[in-house]
Amino acid sequence: MAEVRLVDIEKRYGAFHAVKKQNLTIEEGEFLVLLGPSGCGKTTTMRMIAGLEDITSGDLMIAGQRVNDKPPKDRDIAMVFQNYGLYPHMSVEQNIGYPLKLRGVDKATRTKQVRETAEKVELEALLKRRPSELSGGQRQRVALARAIVRTPKIFLMDEPLSNLDAKLRVSMRAELKHLHHELGVTTVFVTHDQMEAMTLATRVAVMRDGQIVQLDTPKKIYSEPVNLFVAGFIGSPSMNLIEGAIAGGQFTAPGVQMPVDAPDRADVVLGIRPEDLELTQSTDAPISGALYALELTGDSTLVTLREKGTSICARGPAEFEAAINTRCMLAPKPGGRVHLFDKTSGERLD
Ligand code: ATP
């Protein structure tokens, strides 16, 4: 187990600044998720930790030692990358067992460990196949199995579940979570899937344009996003973000008249999550609009209202039914959280 520390880490590709002055301490035993949209620098950060990418400037420390110039094989890291990196001439069994072979583990122990690991990722029936005879999702599971077959100091995982179908993705997620609980190995996990980040992480680092914009527990990222970018990125469906103004303790926008505990201010964005709203019959409800769409998700119905260009989504009960264009009213649920942001800077106000 080991702490990983990035001190003023930068990465430039020529004139392009891919990672900017990154400072981050990944604590021993932590499951840290790097989350952000495509191109924000997640993979580059991960590849620098792995030693697969030169660091332009700054210090990378693993277990208190500066490792900028240490080759990947000397960092005691196990990696899973998007492009699998499997050996084409080896069987699934040999691929999974390779890290053990490299470390001189005897054949009988290897066979046993490979079988146990293959079971965890549901690959036991495919051990004799070559990577070319597997689907993308199966290859991804081989790469995952090869990483978890031994216990390294650090796991680095770059979108290791991205090619799996929805059901397998959820079961592998639980498997990874259990594995982390069992082994307690420091893990850095890259994803652009906020649900994966929320469910797996001890802390999430939300990245944008080569920088970390918020580093917090999943709970805090969800309940107190620091700016509009994080607010809109976390949650599904995403937070309603409504542009308006505050005067006399009231936020006003088309279809919205919501009491808020904040001083007068123009150019404000009010944020409220669909799950923090409820349908109401009250005619003086803070939000009203014409019903635009109803989407049954199984355990609930997503209710979208539109009013003069403002669109608001609420998570209502599964049984809710109404005709399109009916006038509907919404109010924050008791305890439902209202967020306020500055429209220009995007920063959180409360
Ligand atoms: P994704 O989710 O799409 O994998 P990411 O957040 O992992 O994205 P990176 O792969 O880290 O993003 O890339 C960060 C930025 O650096 C991108 O704009 C990318 O185009 C750029 N980049 C990456 N590798 C190189 C390279 N070898 N040369 C020049 N630019 C690069």
What would your notes on this structure say?
With 350 residues, the chain is α+β, with helices and mostly antiparallel strands. It folds into 2 domains: 4-232, Rossmann fold; 237-342, OB fold (Dihydrolipoamide Acetyltransferase, E2P), CATH 2.40.50. Helices cover 24% and strands 36% of the residues. The protein contains 8 helices and 20 strands. It has helices spanning 42-50, 92-102, 107-120, 136-148, 166-183, 194-200, 218-223, 228-233, and strands at 4-13, 16-26, 31-35, 57-62, 65-66, 77-80, 154-158, 186-191, 203-208, 211-216, 240-247, 250-253, 256-259, 265-272, 277-280, 287-296, 300-307, 310-317, 327-332, 338-342. The strands form 4 sheets. It has a 6-stranded mixed beta sheet, sandwiched between helices. It has a 5-stranded antiparallel beta sheet with strand order 13-12-11-14-20. A hairpin with a 2-residue loop joins strand 4 (57-62) and strand 5 (65-66). Helix 2 (92-102) packs across helix 3 (107-120). The longest helix has 18 residues, at 166-183. The two termini are 38 Å apart. The protein binds adenosine-5'-triphosphate (ATP). Residues 13, 16, 18, 36, 38-44, 192 line the site of adenosine-5'-triphosphate (ATP). Adenosine-5'-triphosphate binds next to strand 2 and helix 1. Residues 4-234 form the ABC transporter domain. It comes from Gymnodinialimonas phycosphaerae.
